[in-house]
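input
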Amino acid sequence: MIMVASSETDKNGVYSGTSNEKQAEEGVEKLKKLYDDLLYALECKYIYLDSNINLTKLSFLLCTNTTYLSRCVNRYFHCNLKCVLNKYRVEYAKKLLCEERCCIKKLAKQCGFTSRSTFYSAFSKYENVTPAEYRAKYHSMKVLREIEANINNLLTV
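output
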């Protein structure tokens, strides 16, 4: 048996889509709302710093189910939740590495990684350098900018 969705019209007889189209639109809207909630949890609540966060716990926090959250992550981030969390953790680590008082040995735990080896692996995957190399590169570029600024100041006097 073939199911055919009936078209619906409003009180003026204007086509307003099929029931299936409306359900699809509602589904997209719900997915977008979940995405917005997820971004808020990541960018404002820093949930990625919790080394115990996983799909089940995060879906509970966002009042959804794991299937729907996984679908949202795959659709909007084009990867799985672990990948998203690690990207945010690496970005956070990069910020900390630019601060001179940050200890590289403690950085993995500060950024939500369960181990230093996982941290180094993820950092190298996304940045193509180790955390120590990243810090050295950042600080050498900072010194270079300061030297260039001093030279420019001397030339304009």
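quick obs: DSSP finds seven helices and two strands in the chain.
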